[in-house]
Amino acid sequence: MRDLSFRPGKALRLSEFINPEDGKSVILEADQGLMLGPVTGLVELDETVKNLKSEVDAIVLSPGQAGRLIQHFRGRKAPALIVRADWANVLRDETFVLPAQKIRHVTVVSASEALAFGASGIMAFFIVGYEDDEDEARNMNAIASLARESDRLGVPLLVEALPIGARVTKTNYTDCADLAMRMSVEAGADAVAVPYTGDVGSFRKIVGAAKVPVFTLDVGNTTKGPVEIATDALEAGASGIITGIKMFQTAEPFKVLKTIKDIVHKKVEKSS
Amino acid sequence: MPSPGKTLRLSKILDPDDGRGVVVAADHGFMLGSIKGVFNLEKTLRRVIEGGPEAVLLSPGQAARLGHLFHGRKSPAILVRADWTNAFRTKKYALPTRTIGRAMAASARDALTLGASGIVTYYFIGCSDEIEAWNFKLMTTFARECDEIGLPFIVEPLPFGERVTGANHAELILTSVRMAVEAGADAIKTSYTGDVKTFRKVVKSAGVPILVLGGAKARTRRDALEVIAEALEAGASGVVYGRQVVQAEDPAEFVRSVRAVVHEGKSVREAIGGVYAGPIRWQIDVEKCTGCRMCEVACTFRHEQDFAFSKARIRVVSSSEEGYQPIPCSLLLNRTLSMINSLSPSLTFSAHRPVCVEACGTGALTIHPKMGYLQLRIERCSGCKKCVKACPLQVIRFDEERKIPLICDMCEGSPECVEWCQPKALVVVEQKSKD
Question: Looking at chain A from residue 38 to 67, which residues have their Cβ under 8 Å from any Cβ of chain B?
């Protein structure tokens, strides 16, 4: 954990989505409409947020939806709001109507704008594996400036460190993830989200090197589902999971999310 | 569309379930120094937070220093006092005010950076025109900044200065509240006007949530909780408590009883612990009390065949500023016991006793088993004064000659004090039949 004692606002907002009692968190990623249009589970976003908000510590929304759905975040029982600060076409694979031909990344919201929405944090990509090295530099420039601004304003920056592209293989995946994670931390991320590397040992290495809270994504170098990934990652010392698309693709998303919540916040052990 | 940031942050101050909130002000040190209750602010705040207020008002310095106490979504929100004044340093303080000074202590952006859910600033009305204009300018500067960044702006309009009188006070509140709303306040912190009718007018004309100052002096002396109950009836959204909480013996307990009135709609009696089901129930109308003390006289004549105020079993509190109020024995219950009682309703009448009876170690002071009023068995009384000290209303006096407490037996059901009260300030509203 970064020493945030001289940034009381940042520490306070971080505690709004990482439960201070157990240091753990379940975050729902519901911002994919910004990059992919209406995907499964997020078509009726209003309904999704309403139904799932009781199970999570925070929900990631695009800036447009954050303004539109703010009512769901009112009060002390509501989850925290995290605003997606950037856009990228990385998630557009061959099955998408317009597959990405070249990976691009742009910032869409500043930290101060996210704060005006009432956000407790901002989330942005840092992608490694670009074909063009210039693009990696541009992406670094974008998250570094978000990091500097978020330091000034006391908004936690959550970086999604993503190894992607032809240069990333099954064998170098963990090293690529480690590189993306570590560069994000050095740039100033207050927490990082990393795709699951495939096994507890390799993920533990990443968590150990980070020194900031590490979340696993519900995807990665694995065929495992979100529940298994959450179990493994927690064992590896992760602070929780950021789940979205994969969870919505399961037969009973609500049940899956509930199970994940119990695993992350350790309700499972108590009942057994 | 209203600002999402303001909507979200205001919902931490006013619970969206009932639209109400309890705020504790703990920024006294900023204006007055290390006064009682804020001397060790961290210790006090831990107790305050335990009571579960919606928000706590802090100076910018303490918000930075003690922000860690407010971690987690369940914790109270932080409100930052964004301005400073010397105006409250009366003659009691080391350096009394000579001319009123104001300063901006933090910008709205600074407060947001600290993690605040809102800022609070004063708006003084009733001083010189020049000072008022300057105050207004400061208020609008904050308002515009808060609009930009999505931070709720709470204004505390304060009739203050040489042009404020008892007669124009309520109207100045009405006027200044509305002016603050027009300037851009999202909520108002103000003192109670003194009665439901005028306060309802303030609430209606404001159109934004109003938080009433629970500790402020009303025109007549009332229990602080009764002021809240009235203000809520008039449409207030909540309450701001300062010294009464931070200087309370148990701040957590105090906040809980305020919460009971504000959020759970409990009556004042329920919130402070309830009353023993005695033979009669009083109703006191402070507006009618003239302070004639006939109730005291009637009481002593009935019990002592003498006219001696020092032996009355009822007392009238008075002050030239705040009016008069008779305080009769109300058989107040111990709070904890009455809470247990409310959980299991089968345990009524004899299951627990008023605080004076609880305090009596010799069994001299008891409740009449059938009628429910106090009775004293003189032969058992040791003259220890435990009941005198225990009475929260200080209505049990001690007879130094006979070495016994003078307790109210409600004249066995037909109290003389009520009989002799000409203005009908003290009446009996409920009476148990004698069989």
Answer: 57, 66-67
Handedness of CA A59, A64, A70, A76 (dihedral sign): positive
Number of domains, chain B: 2
**pLDDT given for residue B412 in this prediction:** 80
Contact B15 A152 (CB under 8 A): no
DSSP B133-189: HHHHHHHHHHHHHHHHHT--EEEEEEE-STT--TTTHHHHHHHHHHHHHHHT-SEEE
**In the predicted model, is pLDDT for residue A64 greater than 70?**
yes
Interface test mutation site (partner A, options B113, B145, B149, max chain A beta carbons within 10 A): B113
Contact present, B299 and B314 (Cβ < 8 Å): yes
The Cα A116–Cα B146 span in angstroms is: 9
B-chain residues near A21 (CB < 8 A): 72
Check whether residue B410 and residue B298 sit in a common domain: yes
- Chain B residues 101-130 with CB within 8 Å of chain A: 109, 112-116
Q: How far apart are CA B266 and CA B257, in angstroms?
A: 9
A1: contact with B, CB 8 A cutoff: no
3-state helix, strand, coil in chain A (%, to 5): 45, 20, 35
HSE-up (13 A, CA, CB side) for residue A54:
6
- CB distance B16–A154 less than 8 Å? no
Q: What pLDDT was estimated at residue B245?
A: 86
* A11 part of contact set with chain B, CB < 8 Å: yes
A117/B5 Cβ within 8 A: yes
If asked whether residues B220 and B300 sit together in one domain, one would say no
CB contact under 8 A, A154 and B113: yes
Residues of B in contact with A78 (CB under 8 A): 11, 73
pLDDT value at residue B338: 46
CB contact at 8 A, B65 and B115: no
How far is Cα A5 from Cα B64, in angstroms, rounded to an integer?
9
- Choose the final residue of a domain: B238, B271, B304: B271
Q: Which domain holds residue B343?
A: 280-431
CATH of range A8-271; options 3.20.20.70, 3.10.580.10, 3.40.50.1110, 3.40.30.10 = 3.20.20.70
Q: What residues 38-57 of chain B have any CB closer than 8 A to a CB of chain A?
A: 54
> pLDDT tens-digit profile of A173-193?
999 999 999 999 999 999 999
Would you call B67 an interface residue with chain A, using a CB distance cutoff of 8 Å?
yes
Q: Per-residue confidence at A214, pLDDT binned at 50, 70, 90? A: very high
Look at residues A28, A8, A6 and name the one whose alpha carbon lies nearest to residue A17: A28
| Mutation site, A4, A49, A57, A70, interface B, largest B CB count within 10 A | A70
The ipTM, to two decimals, is 0.86
Under an 8 A CB cutoff, do B17 and A116 touch? no
Are residues B312 and B391 located together in one domain of the fold?
yes
Q: Which of A12, A66, A74 sits opposite B115 (nearest CB)?
A: A12
pLDDT tens, residue by residue, B157-188: 998 888 888 888 889 999 999 999 999 999 99
**Is residue A222 predicted with pLDDT exceeding 60?**
yes
pTM to 2 decimals? Answer: 0.75
Give tens-digit pLDDT for B32-73.
998 888 999 999 999 999 999 999 999 999 999 999 999 999
- Sorting pLDDT into bands at 50, 70 and 90, what band is B377? confident
